[in-house]
Design a protein that fits this description.
heterodimer, A: alpha/beta, five-stranded parallel β-sheet, four-stranded parallel β-sheet, 18 helices, B: six-stranded mixed β-sheet, 21 helices, globular, disordered C terminus
């Protein structure tokens, strides 16, 4: 890992994550306060990394942008922003408008909150977030938009509803499986009898989002993303939150549902009933795979490369559900402190299989092979790292080629798969993942 | 003095009086109506949608260079477009070298501290580490907006460090807020190449004037074929085929060419542009410094334009007769082959949207196939395109709308709802608006597909035939999704937000 650069960053900047997040809200209209090129950069980023998902109702090149230039840099961009918002309201129909700042407008010191506040005072559903690119990655941008939403859009002081929960933690488009991942968790929470607001799905509406303060519990299916927003939510709306690892497969989903059940005061009997039903179906579907799983010798050594959500959760699935041998797990997020990665150490330390996984934090994908070679040197008459599998991003194809291993792109960037509503969470996601992993091993069969 | 002697290239607003905001018509832009409005006073928009900046086309070129590391000096998001360009690099390296190779790009990922204290030291360390780790032939140091505002001096850093590292260091200035004409990207890249790989002063004076780079000879039958990053290997092969038939040797340059081999460009007898928007800056440098004359008109897209382009090249070598023979043969065969598609195309209306030259040349091609052009959107306008507007103004019976817009899909949506064309051709990531309106669409460039030369005409016709045979996918979309514009907008003047007004459509 370099102190001085990041190799092929597997994310874009805060503004990019923020814009994608706003686009994913029902009727969400991002307004970039930025030079003209930021929107196009995000369009091409998603084109190459979001498993062929570009845009949405108002995304990428349709996104309004103040498109400031040199003159605004000298004289300030506030008046240009005001003009842009006024005209956006005339041209574009939305349920919520969100002004998102860029590096340039933050360095020159534009006060967007004052401008946004004036419009809000006139009844415009508008929020603003400081998402300058130097503030962090697309994951940070997601958190910053949720914070602005919770601060300036949610109704305050609404009565709590006991069974109502909010769900977030996967970043639209920068987790290419965001829709499927949210849908399956939502389905399971509803099976527990909970009423779910998940912000970004077809079932969600701007009105339920406005009422999100009525939730008794916030469930964040991440131990890295959206946590700032969870803390702010608790402070402003007095709703506690539960941050849990992205639940991939039966082995992770059972403790997930039990933890949620306990926090949301769902009876243990009801939780167990849901788990039993889901487990029965899960294993009923896995059952006929048994012969071929054995006959084709489908157990694999594995390297897992991914973001802070996927690195640990995919590893756990491989080790504990599939009985594979994940030797090395690489988290590519640029963590600033030791603590930021602590949850991954904890997740890997708690494997039911007790498989000893080496966890590395490394932003540069081309270094993964040297981390692997430290454990598995090359040479004749050695117990080599084979048969192997690489679960990572599409940038891990080089590594897979070097190892002579099949590969599956899951974490951003995913350039070589088309994803619409596929997800890897929960029971259904676990089955999808088995299909996709094995599908990558046997395409020549 | 050449622009390349300056530290940074001038922006095209200044150098070429280029503009991005105008609503007009084909006859007006061709000067036929006698009222070509004052495009130079670029009327900006009071409502704008995002587009791209010069960083994107610059990276599309730089990411393709073998043995090069792209080092972005900016915040972490700048350059994430490389994820999509990487697909092109993998495809391009597969068809050229037989192996898919990922582009290698790095970011200094400037953070809040760097913004306050300056990023030069971080950049220095990044260059040193990249040089040691990847051992590349060259490192292109690309600056984004943040160093442009806080005043990091990338040229100074490069000058200080060059003696300490093995890689050749190329500065490429891409501060996005400084220009709205993203074609300035080409100048920025060529500027870096010219200043570093073809350093001024490193040529010897020949007997009769200017000579190639030192130690190299002039090659009297070699031509530089300037490729563009929107052009795939299949298109290069088509142009190579035609040029070789004239008896010429072809040096394809600069996309996907090894930085070490770029000096070969100084040996050629002629440089041939395939897109005047792309190449003028560098071709005048090659001409002034190394005595390589340049051809910079016509884009070899379409039957007539390919012929004009080839005849121009041939004339420089006295091969006109041979060229006329090739052109006559190709046109005869092609027109025969196209007969199959013409009944489906004849009289169908089309709207075209892309970079200026590409849009205009493709419009001519579509006319040749039997379509009727009803509107064009050019991403910018400068003087190089005047001749193309004149060609189109001459060939059309009715005047039609031309929107000069750096994307701006809201204007396009408005125009398309009025014009209801039978077909739309747009830039990559630029077909969504038309598709959601239910119009059959096709991408105007894709490096895996053929567009250029005679083969390009035929292959494009084949693809459009497919699209028009079953356009139901877009129709389904239109029935089930909507664009984000208010209904009032469709009734408004499409150019209402261009500050200088524009012509009522």
């Amino acid at each position: 890992m370099s102190e001085h650069f990041i190799e092929r960053p597997r994310y874009t900047c805060a503004q990019g994550g923020a814009a994608a997040t706003v686009t994913a809200l029902p009727g969400g209209i991002p307004i970039l306060h930025s030079p003209s090129g930021c929107a196009g950069n995000f369009a091409w980023t998603q084109n190459g990394g979001s498993a062929l998902q570009v845009g949405g109702y108002c995304g990428t090149l349709a996104i309004p942008s103040s498109s400031i230039g040199e003159r605004d840099v000298v004289f300030g961009g506030d008046s240009r922003l005001r003009e842009q918002i006024e005209n956006t309201l005339k041209v574009i129909e939305g349920s919520i408008y969100a002004v998102l700042t860029s590096c340039v407008t933050e360095v020159i010191g534009d006060d967007i909150q004052a401008v946004v506040g004036d419009f809000r005072a006139q009844g415009v559903p508008i929020i603003g977030a400081e998402t300058g690119g130097f503030r962090g990655t697309s994951y940070d941008g997601y958190d910053l938009v949720l914070q602005a939403l919770f601060r300036d859009f949610l109704e305050r002081g609404v009565a709590k509803r006991r069974k109502r929960v909010n769900l977030w933690g996967v970043v639209p488009y920068y987790d290419p499986f965001w829709r499927g991942n949210l849908e399956e968790v939502r389905r399971l929470l509803e099976a527990l009898g909970l009423e779910v607001n998940s912000f970004f799905l077809a079932e969600d509406s701007i009105d339920t989002i406005r009422q999100a303060g009525s939730a008794s519990l916030n469930i964040v299916i991440s131990q890295a993303y959206g946590l700032g927003a969870a803390r702010l939510f608790e402070e402003l709306h007095a709703t506690p939150y539960l941050s849990l690892p992205l639940p991939v497969g039966a082995g992770a989903t059972e403790p997930f549902l039990r933890a949620v059940g306990a926090a949301a005061r769902v009876s243990a009997r009801r939780v167990s009933a849901v788990i039993d039903t889901e487990h029965r179906r899960y294993y009923r579907y896995l059952e006929p795979l048994t012969d071929c799983f054995n006959d084709l010798d489908l157990q694999r050594y594995a390297v897992v490369v991914g973001d802070a959500n996927y690195a640990g959760s995919l590893t756990r699935f491989l080790a504990d559900d599939l009985g594979w041998l994940p030797e090395l797990t690489v988290c590519t997020d640029p963590f600033r402190t030791e603590e930021e990665g602590q949850h991954l150490h904890a997740q890997i330390a708690q494997l039911r299989s007790q498989y000893p996984v080496q966890l590395v934090f490394e932003t540069d994908g081309s270094r993964v092979i040297s981390h692997l070679r430290e454990q598995w040197p090359v040479g004749s008459y050695r117990n080599v790292f084979a048969p192997a599998f690489v679960v990572g991003t599409s940038l891990e194809r080089e590594l897979a080629a070097e190892l002579g291993a099949p590969q599956l792109s899951v974490s951003f960037p995913v350039s070589n798969r088309a994803v619409l509503d596929r997800g890897y969470t929960g029971y259904r996601g676990g089955l999808r993942l088995v299909e996709d992993l094995i599908g990558a091993i046997i395409p020549g069969r | 003095m050449s622009h390349i002697d300056l530290k940074t290239p001038p922006k095209r607003e200044d150098r070429l009086k280029a503009c991005i905001a105008h609503g007009g018509s084909i006859c007006e832009l061709a000067g036929r109506s006698g009222k070509k409005s004052c495009l130079q006073n670029d009327g900006e928009r009071s409502f704008t949608q995002g587009s791209i900046c010069l960083l994107l086309p610059a990276l599309a070129m730089l990411n393709s260079l073998p043995d090069n590391v792209v080092l972005l000096h900016s915040a972490v998001g700048c350059g994430s477009c490389s994820h999509s360009q990487n697909a092109n690099v993998r495809f391009g390296s597969t068809v050229r070298q037989g192996k898919a190779t990922d582009a290698r790009w790095l970011s200094t990922a400037m953070n809040e501290t760097d913004v306050i204290t300056g990023g030069e030291e971080k950049l220095e360390q990044a260059i040193i580490e990249a040089d040691q780790r990847y051992k590349p032939y060259s490192i292109t140091v690309v600056s984004g907006c943040v160093p442009g505002i806080i005043g990091d001096d990338i040229d100074g850093v490069i000058q200080r460090l060059q003696p300490e590292v093995n890689a050749r260091l190329l500065p490429v200035h891409c501060e996005g807020f400084k220009t709205k004409i993203w074609a300035t990207a080409y100048d920025a890249v060529y500027h870096g190449i010219g200043r570093t790989l073809l350093r001024p002063g490193e040529q010897e004076a020949g007997d009769n004037g200017l000579a190639p780079f030192k130690g190299l000879e002039r090659l009297p039958r070699t031509v530089n074929l300037m490729n563009v990053s929107s052009m795939g290997r299949v298109d290069e092969l088509e142009l190579e085929r035609l040029l070789k038939e004239l008896g010429l040797d072809v040096n394809v340059f600069p996309v996907f060419s090894h930085p070490e081999s770029m000096v070969k460009a100084t040996q050629a007898a002629l440089s041939i542009s395939t897109c005047p928007t792309h190449d003028d800056y560098f071709l005048s440098y090659l001409e002034e410094r190394f005595g390589v004359p340049a051809l910079i008109q016509h884009m070899p897209i379409g039957i007539e334009n390919t012929g004009l382009w080839l005849r121009d090249v041939a004339a420089r070598f006295g091969f006109e007769t041979a060229a006329d023979g090739i052109i006559a043969r190709e046109e005869r065969e092609l027109r025969d082959a196209l007969r199959e598609f013409r009944p489906l195309f004849e009289g169908k209306t089309v709207f075209i949207s892309a970079g200026e030259f590409r849009a205009l040349a493709t419009a001519r091609l579509l006319e040749e196939l039997g379509f009727r052009v009803v509107g064009i959107r050019s991403f910018h306008h400068d003087e190089f395109a005047d001749v193309e507007y004149r060609k189109l103004a001459q060939s059309t019976e009715e005047d039609y709308v031309v929107d000069i817009a750096n994307v701006q899909p809201f204007e396009e949506a408005n125009l398309l709802r009025r014009l209801k064309p039978d077909l739309f051709l747009g830039h990559a990531n630029g077909n969504g608006t038309a598709a959601k309106l239910g119009i059959p669409t096709h991408v105007i460039y894709n490096t895996g597909l053929a567009y250029i030369g005679y083969k390009g005409v035929y292959e494009l016709a084949r693809r459009l035939y497919r699209q028009l045979k079953n356009p139901i996918y877009n129709r389904n979309l239109a029935e089930n999704v909507r664009l984000p514009y208010r209904s009032e907008w469709y009734g408004a003047n499409p150019f209402a937000y261009i500050a200088s007004g524009g012509t009522e459509a």
